[in-house]
Design goal:
Elements (H helix, E strand, L loop, with lengths): L63
Length: about 60
């Protein structure tokens, strides 16, 4: 979990080094207008960061 207290904080990593899965319905987050980009961020707030992120099976679809 990061140190920031701002932003959309409904999907936070808390699996302690294991793989964690997320399903995010964009209709449930406060967004306005069309979505042009999807961005993934790895933020390790320490002086010597060692964090790694792996993304797989990313799917974007309408139900």
């Amino acid at each position: 979990m990061g140190t920031q207290t701002w932003g959309i904080r409904t999907h936070l990593y808390n699996a302690g080094g294991a793989i964690q899965h997320f399903k995010i319905a964009l209709s449930e987050v406060s967004l306005a207008g069309d979505i042009a980009y999807l961005i993934f961020v790895d933020d390790h707030d320490v002086s010597s960061p060692t964090a790694e992120s792996y993304f797989s099976n990313v799917r974007i679809y309408e139900q």
